[in-house]
Amino acid sequence: MPLHFKGLPPDSGWTIQRAEDLLSSLPGVVSVRVVARPGGEIEEIHLLTTTEVSPKQTVRNVESALKAHFHLEVDHRKISVAQSSDAVKVEEEPEPQKPVLIEKILPSRSESRILLLGHQVETERGRRVKVAVTVEWTGDEYTGEAWGADLPRSRLETVARATLSAIEETILDRERDHPAGSVTLALDGVKVLEAFDRTYILVGVNAVHDRDVVTLAGASPVEGTQERAVILATLQATHRWVRGRF
Predict the structure, then answer these.
(1) What CATH fold (topology level) applies to the domain 115-245?
(2) Which phi and psi angles does 154 have, rounded to 5°?
(3) What is the spatial distance between Cα 143 and Cα 176, in angstroms, rounded to a whole number?
(4) What pLDDT does residue 47 have?
(5) Cβ-based neighbour number of residue 35 at 10 Å
(6) What does the domain layout of the chain look like in residue ranges?
(7) Whole-number average pLDDT of the chain
(8) Do the strands 79-83 and 115-124 form a parallel or antiparallel pair, or are they unpaired?
């Protein structure tokens, strides 16, 4: 069955707001968040839906809508769908004489992912590099920084350490309300791998909680810069461990 979108004619131009308005009109969608790179490439799409439409169908609807209206091709792996039996989709605007208050539903921190908002790499004197990584967790932003030698291997390790610093900030913020002992995320290493005609970044992390040490690992294909792949691999390595704590 073809999808219909109210008041949204096909257009090759798009903005995050227009894309979110479009996807909000899809069947069963309650809320939408689109994350895009400065150049305009969509990095992630997060949707909260009712249970009337399956997650797989919602993903297909998103792909079809973006392609039909904005000529955008989005990899299905960038689309995440969370369902809630309590969520209610409002299909029509309320009449002026009967205002309706709609509460925005956000996933709890334990249900959401730490998202990459951006990163900055600055070259300093003496062949040193400064890296700042900014992430978001349930609407709150956190920035981690690290310094290192401006050499190929050290540069990638500095990016990973800046990412771990940002993740530690999210944990410290959460533990102000729920103290659970000291936490340290230590970089084990960063490795560039060639496999299946593609380049991958592998990141190893040691999560230290009091006297316990857990070895974590994450991998990401290089689809942009190696620095961005390092950040995504580091987030993948730590995601389950961080969620398991809260």
Answers:
(1) Double Stranded RNA Binding Domain (3.30.160)
(2) -65, -35
(3) 17
(4) 85
(5) 16
(6) 16-83, 115-245
(7) 81
(8) unpaired
Per-position b or e across 36-68, b if 16+ CB within 10 A of its CB: eeeeeebbbbbbbbbeebebeebbebbbebbee
Gyration radius of the chain's alpha carbons: 20
| C-alpha span between 131 and 140 (Å, rounded) | 20
Question: Which tokens go with 169?
Answer: 């900030």
Q: Is the pLDDT of residue 86 over 60?
A: no
Which pairs with CB-CB distance under 8 Å and at least 24 residues apart come from 103-108?
Answer: 104/31, 105/30, 105/31, 105/48, 106/31, 106/138, 106/139, 107/48, 107/82, 107/138, 108/138
Which has more confidence, 140 or 104?
Answer: 140
Q: Which CATH superfamily, name and number, covers 16-83?
A: ANL, C-terminal domain (3.30.300.30)
For residue 13, what pLDDT is reported?
66
Rounded Cα–Cα distance for residues 113 and 242 (Å) = 10
